[in-house]
Design goal:
Oligomer: single chain
Strand content: under 5%
Helix content: over 70%
Shape: globular
Structural class: mainly alpha
């Protein structure tokens, strides 16, 4: 891919943000800042309570701590710049900063999908194979799975953004998004991008659709096993361990499928962009509430920490 001569290379991009909400930017800045602070504090609370409470050092909560850390990182790649666009209507970002932002945003997002898949597999083993669970899902296996999710996401997303980095950008530098999304960036390239577009589609199918199918398959076996439990109390107890995960999966994948898989995606541009903003800000904020409000183990851990704190003070 040769860069055309006599054309200056783009050194920075302009992020348009959300133009159709310009009149409400001050309100959205306050709401967005509040949601970002709650996201950091809530997910940070999960990380701290899991780290200091020994009874939460299990595969289920190791995955959850990774998810909480990912939520902090995922929203932090985009929200600070998004808040800036609410103040300035549009804002600039350097070429390399743009690619770094997009890379980490999608890397953390992809890792989150892999972690949710690992959590579904963990629940499948715990409910469907309870006797073999301690061996099949040991801490060592859990850590290996966690590292594998991070490594896979890094390789897949790095490959795509490395190809984008090599593209010539020599015309318009206006990115019609609130962050450096790879789709709007490719439309600004001064060369043919069909190969990268095709590889991006394959990667999206592999990451989003395949992980969703694995999660659905896990829950097919989980539900089948739960239905064979003779006791109603036993069925309720078994299913209660999955409700938080199911709710998180429904919210996250629902937004992703709405944005990328539904027909006539370009006909509702404003709605799609609004859903993308909510997926970046609202979903990470809900994670701590979803996993702690009805979680007896976390409540007991918090009570233990409070009692220990009172004991040290006395």
């Amino acid at each position: 891919m040769m860069e055309p001569r006599n054309m200056s290379r783009v050194t920075e991009f302009i992020l348009l943000g959300i133009p159709f909400l310009y009149d409400l930017h001050q309100i959205f800045f306050v709401v967005g800042l509040f949601m970002y602070i709650v996201t950091i504090l809530g997910n940070g609370f999960i990380l701290i309570i899991i780290a200091i409470e020994p009874r939460l050092q299990t595969p289920m909560y190791i995955f959850l701590s990774n998810l909480a850390f990912l939520e902090i990182c995922y929203t932090s790649t985009v929200v600070p710049k998004l808040l800036q666009t609410f103040i300035q209507n549009k804002t600039t970002i350097c070429f390399h900063c743009c690619l770094i932002q997009g890379f980490f945003h999608f890397c953390f997002g992809s890792t989150e999908l892999f972690i949710l898949t690992a959590m579904a597999f963990d629940r499948y083993l715990a409910i469907c194979k309870p006797l073999q669970y301690p061996i099949m899902m040991s801490k060592h296996v859990c850590l290996q799975m966690t590292l594998a999710t991070w490594y896979a996401s890094f390789v897949i997303i790095f490959f795509h953004y490395f190809m984008v980095w090599r593209l010539p950008f020599c015309g318009s530098n206006v990115v019609d998004s609130f962050f450096c999304d790879i789709g709007p960036l490719l439309r600004l390239a001064c060369t043919d991008t069909h190969l990268i577009e095709s590889l991006r589609l394959l990667a999206a199918i592999a990451i989003v659709i395949m992980t969703l199918l694995l999660i659905v398959l896990s829950y097919v076996f989980i539900i089948a096993t739960i239905l064979h439990i003779p006791s109603a109390v036993g069925r309720k107890k078994a299913f209660s361990t999955c409700t938080s995960h199911l709710l998180m999966v429904s919210i996250l994948y629902g937004a992703l499928l709405f944005m990328y898989v539904r027909p006539n995606v370009h006909s509702s541009y404003h709605l799609t962009k609004t859903v993308a903003v909510l997926n970046t800000t609202l979903t990470p904020m809900l994670n701590p509430f979803i996993y702690t409000i009805r979680n007896a183990d976390v409540k007991k851990a918090v009570q233990n920490v409070i009692h220990k704190r009172k004991g040290t003070l006395n």
